[in-house]
């Protein structure tokens, strides 16, 4: 019983710890040159945590399995500790994020307790029902906290002529970045020199001469699941290519005709 309980505590700690170190994930990619490695580690930690909770719930007595998971968890704790040491300059930020994640976990646990334990309900007797329902509550809260959505273009771009530049404006379903590519050059939706990623409405300025010469442009938006002080975790990128031709009327409004999707 003590081994199961310790496994649950350590597995959840690793999950929250790694979650709080999301700003380090890009460093893992740079170190090993594998873009998906940080996500694989996250999935492994999640799998261990979920398995540990299930084993505790069903009071599993398989000592071999518990010891294997416990050994993996201890190794992961050591690895995460080393990562934190290497990035100790961000210690204050990681601790704050860890506390926020711990509070979120406490809220999830409280909701699960109130639904499935107090007051007593028939669901308590059916672990096959209780565990999946609790996981659904957990996933739902994470979706709400991180505002996770399927990203797509809600309004196609409109091109405005302003002096010797074009301003291209479009919107997306999820908060994301905005990039316009004309020929081999990319232009970004910026604020104070930084790329905007917390907006659903995107406005990018491109030189009028460049777009007139190219005759087409491509817009793209990438969701940012998490944006940290030094890096972020990117989500899905959507892009569409549009043919472009000035109307020649001298007005400050031009239309864009959608071409084949990229």
Describe the structure in your own words.
With 262 residues, the protein is an alpha+beta fold. The protein has two domains: 2-146, no CATH class; 153-258, Immunoglobulins (Immunoglobulin-like, Sandwich). Helix content is 48%, strand content 28%. It has helices at 2-20, 25-32, 37-58, 63-86, 91-116, 127-146, 208-214, and strands at residues 153-162, 165-176, 179-182, 185-188, 190-191, 194-195, 199-207, 216-227, 232-244, 253-254, 256-258. Strands 4-3-8-9-11 form a five-stranded antiparallel β-sheet. A four-stranded antiparallel β-sheet has the order 7-2-1-10. A hairpin with a 2-residue loop joins strand 5 (190-191) and strand 6 (194-195). Helix 1 runs antiparallel to helix 3 (37-58), helix 3 packs antiparallel against helix 4 (63-86) and helix 5 (91-116) packs across helix 6. The longest helix has 26 residues, at 91-116. The radius of gyration is 24 Å and the shape is elongated. Residues 249-262 have low confidence and may be disordered.
Q: Main attributes?
A:
Immunoglobulin-like, disordered C terminus, elongated, four-stranded antiparallel β-sheet, 28% strand, alpha+beta, 2 domains, single chain, 11 strands, 262 residues, five-stranded antiparallel β-sheet
> Residue share in helices?
40-55%
Number of strands: 11
Strand content: 25-35%
Structural class by SSE content: alpha+beta
- List segments where confidence is low: pLDDT < 50 over at least 5 consecutive residues: 249-262
Mean pLDDT rating: 82
- Widest sheet: strand ordering: 4-3-8-9-11
Number of helical runs?
7
- Secondary-structure element sequence? HHHHHHEEEEEEEHEEEE
